[in-house]
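cron nightly-structures :: item 1 of 1
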Amino acid sequence: MAPAVNPEEIVLLLADEYSRMAAAYDANVTPHFALIAERVVGLADPRAGESCLDLGAGTGLLACMIAPKVLPQGVVAIDLADGALAAGTYRAARYGIKSIRFEMMDVRNIIYPGRTFDAVASNLGIPAFGFDRCFAEVARVLKSTGRFVFSEWGDFTDPHHEAFLRAIERHRSPNPPKKLAELRPAVAFYRQSEATKAIRDPAQVTAALKRAGFPRVAVRTEIHKVVFSPPETFIDFRMSWGANEAEVAGMTESSRTAFLAEVKDELWRHASGDRLEVDWLVHYYVAKLG
């Protein structure tokens, strides 16, 4: 059966949700991604005087790590979620960084001339839908001596996330408001799509990079152990994605109370003391044109 929305509509719906949840995302999600971003910076090795592009920049974590290293040049940070970019602008100002230009832009259609950037980087910001178009655009705007470095999730199962989603399914409203009714099929399609599976498969990503014009591709895979302490902070983490927050917000008060109690009990049962440990599988890609 055809999906209720097409992939391009899904991209826009999810961007809207990232915008809506930008403050919560920056507070509850971004700190857990810092180690992954540090790995990307290390592999990208940004140098003084280089111009860099951050794809799917979100709330500016990676851009703020790169910017001090490339002075007196700067970083262009692009994303479709304007709320996330606003949070990124605030982050940069908080750290006194003035060399980042945040722009609302589709990473699959980069509005810059060819051979503009010395390095292009991304921390979990490559889109599942149209990542081949994104790679072709990067090959176009990257200087011939430049490098493209990014992180992406591997194909793994987080049992705590799966339990969280099952609990949402049990307690969610059978009569959702209009916005949530639009969001549900979009999220379901995204999670089950072949594109989402492909972006997590190094063989398919490597092949797409080579088709885009990157003959040299190296892949490094790591398992990151992430700690949530106390365990219920995992709920805050997962609730900082718009679809999850919308589902919980749409529950009746009694259903919401039962949902939270069920998830908290599940998390504490798997905790060690007051620490819940989760393993994340992450792939790091380094691609070069020459």
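cron nightly-structures :: done
The chain has a mean pLDDT of 96.
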